[in-house]
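Q: Could you fold this chain for me?
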Amino acid sequence: MILIVSVSIFLATAVGAYGIYWILENRQESLNHRFKEVVGKADATGEGVVESAGKWLDRIWKRFTTKTVVEKDLVNMLSGKELVGARLLLNQAGYRSSGAYHAYLLVRWALPFLFVILSLVGGKIAGMENRTLLLAFLVAGILGFLLPDFALRRRIRKRQEEITDSLPDGLDLLVVCVEAGLGLNAAFVKITEEFRLSSPALSEEFDIVNREMVAGKPRQEALRALSERTGVEDVKSLVAMLIQTEKLGTSLAQSLRVHSDSLRLRRRQRAEEAAAKTTIKLVFPLVFLMFPALFIVILGPGVLQIIKVLIPVAAK
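A: Sure. Below is the predicted structure, expressed as structure tokens.
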């Protein structure tokens, strides 16, 4: 009975969530298409109603059989102004394939169901009581729902740390390239080639910026999209500096050199801060793990000796 109820709740929730997603996606269609749809529905003849119904069914069929939705999702992933919600998180984590968003939604909704089934099967095999089984059911569902988001944010944090650590070195190379006479686009290409092994995340981001500018996207929009895709504060400050330098017409090489020195100083300060926090972080394992073991080893024999002496005396 519990299994049937859980399956029913999951299916109802999944259908409702997909219905809301489908409605929200339909609201983003062009005004002309919606106007034509309204005109078709407003037709008083029976042919207009049939035609509008046929268009509606044709839209549903194309949604699952054509690549328009995939291409639309890919454009949303690569554009800076439409990165919201899960798409923004997936872009910051480096997942930019056409099916990444749908795969994430599938895992997000299927994993709780899988965890619940495993908890029910494991509980029945272990012979748990109904109350314990219900508690395991709830814990497994919550864990399955939160685990994909936790793993995604952990991936984002690691990728941002990689970009933050390698950005000062990339700026040094950028300064050298600009001072040697290369343009900003050619300097981005050089960074993409040189950091492909040492920092794949930074190389990928600069490669996307260069490809967008080659495709005709304005440099300022491409740089703003870079800051949104990464979510790194150092990258945001770099983008602001590049845009300001381009607007004011100041020396790009000098601005990059000053900014590179500031980023390198900031990286050293972060390292010193992490080293200073080490002593505080060591307090917890010392107090809860090492000190009890030391007390047992040091005081254990004395306590046993005291017990051997006092118990016969107390018995008399």
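A (continued): Residues 38-51, 64-83 have pLDDT under 50 and may be disordered.
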